[in-house]
Design a protein that fits this description.
129 residues, mainly alpha, 2 domains
């Protein structure tokens, strides 16, 4: 009897569910303690990390802004030229979706850069315990 790819995935999910459901309490506490120790061992992020992340994000914002503008100009100059209304409607919708996603990506980088810059400034104002 050959197993199909989907049934193998279902078997893996069932085994994981069984393991989670019947996990011993001792093992759960050990797992939680291991995670806490893992977080204690990670170094704390400093202002240099925040400013480099902010700088990188702003560079990506600027580059994707120009790319998004070029995409917008391209789609405004190259209108869909189909005789079918359905095809024209679908291509217009896809053009709008591509433009919207490109600007969403652009301004996501802008807000990430702004947030990291605020955290950079805040790192100098907040006392460490």
């Amino acid at each position: 009897m050959a197993l199909r790819h989907g049934s193998v995935n279902l078997l893996i999910v069932a085994l994981l569910f069984y393991k989670i459901l019947f996990f011993k309490m001792d093992d759960k506490n050990t797992l939680i303690n291991n995670k806490k120790n893992e977080f204690k061992n990670t170094p704390e992020k400093g202002p240099l990390s925040f400013i480099t992340g902010s700088f990188t994000s702003f560079i990506l914002f600027i580059s994707f802004y120009f790319i998004s503008n070029k995409i917008t100009i391209y789609f405004s100059l190259h209108k869909p030229s189909n005789t079918s209304e359905i095809v024209q409607s679908i291509s217009s919708s896809i053009n709008t979706l591509i433009i919207g996603l490109s600007f969403l990506l652009t301004f996501s980088f802008a807000f990430i850069g702004l947030g990291l810059f605020i955290v950079f400034i805040r790192s100098f104002l907040v006392k460490k315990n």
